[in-house]
Amino acid sequence: MNIIGEHIVLRAVEEGDLPKLQEWANDPSIQSMLGGWHFPVGMQDQKKWYDGLSVGSTNQRFAIDVPGDGIVGTANLVNIDWQNRNGFHGMLIGDPDLRGKGIALDTVKTIMSYAFNELDLARLDTDIIEYNVRSIEFYTRKCGWRVEGIRPSWYFRKGRRWDKVVVGITRQQYEEFMACSI
Question: Could you tell me which residue ranges the N-acetyltransferase domain spans (predicted)?
Fold first, then answer.
């Protein structure tokens, strides 16, 4: 089953996507904006990651597909806590020429609709390294998410410590956001 947005399709990651995913995994300009620690990724490790994907998992990863362009990024719903109805969302748009074209907004709206309306989650959150101001403003100004906290000195990048900015959205906030977006 694909998850259909206005301009994008969230679909399963396919083996044919691996070269593009490996390229993005090894792109310092992309990885510097993401959490976690990153090491060079060879195709063998990319394949192991792919082989570990499971539809029954609490960690779901999607290819962001734009009809006519193919895969342009990835999105996820991970660490899904079914008892408390929470999930963590992350996203990357791999091609810098496609950033600022509405793909990310359509992706987040599609993820929120799926999470709240299909999976019946109560809230989503994500965290962003403090110098990724573009992402913080995107989620809070364009997607209805709210800054929920700061975790000081969480990341080490560029020779210094950086804060983790935690942003999230509840189902009620999502419904209010969507009502204002119409």
Answer: 8-163
